[in-house]
Specification:
The complex is a heterodimer of chains A (100) and B (555). Chain A is of the alpha+beta class and 100 residues long. Chain A has one domain. Chain A has a five-stranded antiparallel sheet. Chain A has three helices and five strands, in the order βββαββαα. Chain B has 555 residues and is of the alpha+beta class. Chain B contains 18 helices and 21 strands. In chain B, helix 1 runs antiparallel to helix 4, helix 6 crosses helix 8 and helix 12 runs antiparallel to helix 13. Chain B is globular. The chains are: A alpha+beta (100), B alpha+beta (555). At the A-B interface, helix 2 of A face helix 14 of B.
């Protein structure tokens, strides 16, 4: 299985989960995130993203698996971040129609 | 009930004005996150997994109907129409947006509520017996003392940057319903020669290193309360470790220094500062507070309607048997409203439910609502003859679950469904256990058993002191749940013993089922509770049920 890294954080105003795209935009959809396969490159991009303190909070690198459908979270915590809580249909799953 | 003075109102308005300006400076880029974080935390604002979270204090767990209605309004206007009552008498809103938070705080201030010191390394909201002022076993209402402590600790300049957070619990009853022995300071009222005072307990705490608090003073006259607390916190402020977050709580300070040395230092400090406290002024303040918390005038009431309903309605009787606690006045009861409907999220209430409870409190309950650390609501003063009508109204709101103290009355932290610190989910485990005991219809047969679930080692779900404790961990990238058995959250507090290897997410509920079934088979008689059976037999038969049965099933 191929793996990679994405840059993720929470939005400053809304507090929700975002990822950074290849053209340095912020996306609410993991499938739009830029995937790094080179750690050094990912860390350089993270340093850049972390400087965007007016837009995002707490940027870090998250592991992903590269699947047929695009990047998928490697860890369950990141999987929850793509969906929202499991007790209510709130958060991303309500906004994008992602199923739990 | 405490009424805000002009000083309180002005203080809160000024504090909210300051925070509004801080939020504005964060948004316009004048403040970095590193600069802003401590400011938002001291105003109760966290950034969690999916959103910000605002934690609002409910001092001594007491709310009026207008306050509860305001919480409902806030949840609808700025959140998703519900609130989550926590394990320390707070309410959390899980979905606020940063620019809205100053307006939320102003709305709270309209009814004398706030989020000050609900986070950060400060003295947190003082938790108090949720049956205060109503319980038949009470020596004195602890809330005037809790309010005195709130006034003393709020914005106390010496204690804004403690080594770590600091939690105080207080009870006016010998029967401890607030887990005083698992707090940094526990205050348990005792009477000596008919005069009330406090047994002062220090150094309790759960979390990574669970410890049962030790008695530092067996009888503290009430007039010495503030200087003695100040002496303890000052001693901790000096000795407490700032080099290691995991060793910074006072439980570690007491453990490493020794209770006798700590006692000497506290007593020395107390002797030094006590003369600076004006005992006469404290007594006068306490008298004012006692008058504010004076019990409502309760006229003697008949109970014929209640008895008739009990005889007639099996469901009402089951509810009354589990959800009522004796009141100090004949003809009245303390009603616990379960927020643990089978399959629902422990501690959650919708805006509609909050309004319904506020209305019922006004109609039947002297305009008082309590919030318990067990994540339930309480109407402390209800006439027995009003109970049938109250029950019917609660049923209509899905609030009449008859399970208080039973297997589905589960304490659960938000876990990884919300919390950024969590290592596994708690809520769905609680939901599934409750749904299971509901489906099997064994709850009444099981009798009292406390199941407590934490989604990480910080133990907000108090798992160490549950009859059955569940701790969710991340084991090699997979959710894994450890079980502890034999904990106790009362005045005989005890840390539970860890069983063997943990269970995967899809195996933890069947494991709990095996424990409960094993208890039914092992107990001597129905009157022997789960805790008593564990005490009598030890862990071995339960380990057998947990692990050997599992091996057989797999074979």
């Amino acid at each position: 299985m191929r793996t990679g890294l994405v840059i993720t954080a929470n939005a400053l105003l809304e507090g929700d989960v975002i990822w950074v795209t290849s053209d340095n935009a912020l996306t609410r959809d993991l499938s739009q995130a830029q995937v790094f396969t080179d750690r050094a490159e990912a860390e350089a991009a993270l340093a850049e993203a972390s400087a965007r303190t007016g837009e995002i909070v707490g940027a870090y690198l998250a592991d992903i698996r590269l699947t047929q459908e695009g990047p998928a979270p490697a860890h369950f915590r990141e999987a929850f971040r793509t969906r929202g809580p499991s007790n209510y249909r709130h958060g991303k799953q309500a906004e994008t129609g992602t199923t739990v | 009930m405490y009424r805000y003075s002009e000083f309180d109102h002005a203080f809160l308005a000024e504090r909210n004005r300051q925070f509004r300006a801080q939020v504005a400076r964060r948004i316009d880029g004048s403040l970095t996150e590193d600069e802003f974080r401590p400011l938002r935390l001291m105003n109760g604002l966290y950034l969690q997994l999916h959103a910000y979270m605002l934690r609002v204090a409910i001092p001594y767990g007491t709310l009026s109907a207008p306050q509860l209605r305001k919480l409902a309004e806030i949840s609808e206007r700025w959140d998703k129409g519900y609130g989550h009552f926590t394990t320390r008498q707070n309410i959390q809103f899980n979905w606020p947006k940063l620019p809205d938070v100053p307006d939320m705080l102003d709305a709270l201030a309209e009814v004398g509520l706030h989020a000050i010191q609900t986070s950060g390394n400060t003295i947190r909201n003082v938790t108090s017996d949720h049956f205060a002022g109503a319980a038949a076993d009470e020596i004195e209402d602890p809330r005037p003392y809790a309010e005195l402590i709130r006034q003393w600790s709020t914005d106390h300049p010496e204690f804004q940057f403690l080594p770590r957070k600091f939690k105080i619990a207080i009870t006016g009853s010998p029967n401890d319903r607030v887990v005083t022995r698992a707090h940094d300071i526990g205050l348990r009222m005792v009477a000596r020669d008919g005069v009330p005072g406090f047994e002062v307990i220090v150094g309790g705490g759960l979390g990574r290193t669970p410890m049962i608090g030790q008695v530092i003073r067996d009888f503290l006259p009430v007039a010495d309360l503030l200087p003695y607390l100040e002496a303890i916190v000052a001693t901790y402020n000096l000795l407490g470790r700032r080099d290691n977050k995991y060793k910074a709580r006072i439980k570690i300070t007491v453990h490493e220094t020794g209770i006798d040395t700590i006692r000497e230092m506290v007593e020395a400090r107390f002797a030094e500062i006590a003369p600076e406290f004006d005992q006469t002024a404290t007594e006068a303040t306490l008298d004012t507070l006692r008058a504010m918390f004076a019990p409502p005038p309760l006229n003697p009431r008949d109970s014929a309607t209640y008895e008739a309903a009990r005889a007639r309605d099996r469901l009402f009787r089951a509810w009354a048997d589990t959800n009522l606690t004796p009141h100090r006045v004949a003809g009245y009861a303390i009603v616990t409203i379960s927020l643990k409907a089978h399959g629902q999220t422990p501690g959650d209430a919708t805006a509609e439910q909050m309004r319904a409870v506020a209305d019922l409190a006004e109609r039947y309950g002297q305009d008082e609502i309590r919030v318990s650390h067990m994540q339930n609501l309480v109407l402390p003063h209800v006439a027995l003859d009003d109970l049938p009508a109250l029950y019917a109204a609660l049923r209509a709101q899905g609030l009449a679950t008859a399970n208080v103290g039973l297997a589905s009355d589960i304490i659960a932290c938000p876990g990884m469904d919300y919390c950024a610190l969590a290592t596994a989910r708690s809520i769905p485990v609680a939901q599934q256990i409750a749904a299971l005991v509901g489906a099997l219809d064994i709850e009444q047969e099981l009798g009292p058993v406390q199941i407590k679930i934490s989604g990480c080692i910080n133990a907000c779900g108090h798992h160490h002191v549950g009859d059955i404790g569940i701790l969710g961990l991340d084991r090699a990238g997979v959710e894994n749940y450890q079980i502890t058995l034999g904990g106790n959250a009362t005045e005989e507090a005890r840390i539970g013993s860890r069983m063997g290897p943990g269970f995967a997410y899809d195996q933890i509920v069947p494991a709990i089922e095996r424990l409960l079934v094993a208890y039914l088979e092992l107990r001597l008689e129905p009157a022997e509770t789960f805790a008593q059976t564990v005490k009598r037999l030890g862990l071995t038969p339960f380990k057998t049920a947990l692990y050997e049965t599992e091996a057989q099933d797999a074979a």
